[in-house]
Amino acid sequence: MSDQNFDLVILGSGSGGYAAALRAAQLDMKVALVEKDKVGGTCLHKGCIPTKALLHSAEVADVTKEASHYGVNATFQSIDMGAVNAYRDGIVDKLYKGLSGLVNQKNITLFQGEGRLTGPKTITVNGENLTGKNVILATGSNTRTLGIEIGGRVITSDQALQMDFVPSRVAILGGGVIGVEFASIWRSFGAEVVIIEGADRLVPNEDPAMSKGLERAYRKRGIEFKLGNKFKTVTQLPTGVTVELENGDQVTAEILLVAVGRGPNATGFGFEEQGVAMDRGFVLTNDRLETNLSGVYAVGDIVPGLQLAHRGFMQGIFVAEEIAGLKPIKVDEYGIPRVTYCEPEIASVGLTEAQAKEKFGADKVSTYEYNLAGNGKSNILGTAGVVKLIREINGPVIGFHMIGSRAGEQIGEAQLIVNWEAYPEDVAPLIHAHPTMNEAIGEAHLALAGKPLHAHA
Ligand SMILES: Cc1cc2nc3c(=O)[nH]c(=O)nc-3n(C[C@H](O)[C@H](O)[C@H](O)COP(=O)(O)OP(=O)(O)OC[C@H]3O[C@@H](n4cnc5c(N)ncnc54)[C@H](O)[C@@H]3O)c2cc1C
Hints:
five-stranded parallel beta sheet, 24 strands, FAD/NAD(P)-binding domain, Enolase-like, domain 1, seven-stranded mixed beta sheet, single chain, binds flavin-adenine dinucleotide
């Protein structure tokens, strides 16, 4: 047993934990970073990055299949999952190497192993007690399974990323971000796909206009979905897996992906024993991310709210600066940009129409939908979709929602508009380059400011 002292001890080196470590090190703190697996966490190794690499392979497959439409002679033959996975791993490995290089610096000591909170400010790992003036809990999240046994033909996103073949038919339980993402990948790779969603629409956390657009696109792509229907039982057979729904319908597939959300990974590491206030497995914090224990903070997916890597990054930076006494601006959930990665993509920030009406009153908000049919670049790319804006009447833009191929790339401007509380009249005179998909944002603001260009008022 040995004891070591640090300015800051961080448990977990995912998006939240490593961002806090890097910022704290810049601020000259002596940091201990404890990780039982690989630096980078879910996002780099089992989440954001590998899935986006698969989606890019999927896009290449789709473009190849449609090549003749663009006058290009090319023939789609098949998907080589070995080569797809090698391409994906190459991206992850390169980023992992870069991140490891950043973490490997004089102010950060990495401790490899499972850590436990054994005192209010002490993490014990491999028999070493690491005591910090401050501690950050950043142990992330795990797939929720609703009691369904994972194994064999029933998998989560973790196993889906390890697959070395394209299944012939996949059932996906859950039509949220992860479910629609894998549906998109597998469909492009040639699988039959059926999504089972308990709510009455796909991506139920998004504005209904986005759900409508995605359902239309998925129908066109031949992706089946069963909405408003909860599962009752899951049965594995030697030849496949059968999901029985509450209405008596049955869905049979080769593989079942359980994608019903992610829950906090915060039990079993001594948090409760040390008196950290928790609720349904999440670690509770105040709006400056400090738990009920003074000097013990929490960041990322273990804190209730949007489970997104960039939220974790910003929370990590925030806590490091808070500890350093820099009084950073707090991380506001309302302004966090959200992208649903699939074909077509959904990008949103701020309030949905229903949330805006509830907050401000139905007669105090107005909306505008700009159809991408009027956008030159969208026509060139062959994508359909809309930009939907929500504004407070005589006030700023409070919600942005866009669906279309590559819509995620537009979220940067959208989040500046919403977070800087811009009025449509502020954005309307700003010039958007032609022909870009970004122009659709300019057009939507022109229209909402009462002077549409390539659209009807
Ligand atoms: C399939 C999938 C796709 C996703 N795509 C996106 C996306 O495109 N964009 C996006 O923003 N988000 C995406 N996410 C979500 C994103 O990955 C998470 O929001 C993010 O990783 C959360 O960061 P975190 O630091 O809270 O936790 P994690 O990244 O989960 O990191 C926690 C770390 O703590 C370690 N750890 C846990 N317990 C201990 C312990 N006791 N001792 C030592 N180490 C421990 C773990 O090994 C892990 O490395 C995706 C998630 C999944 C599953």
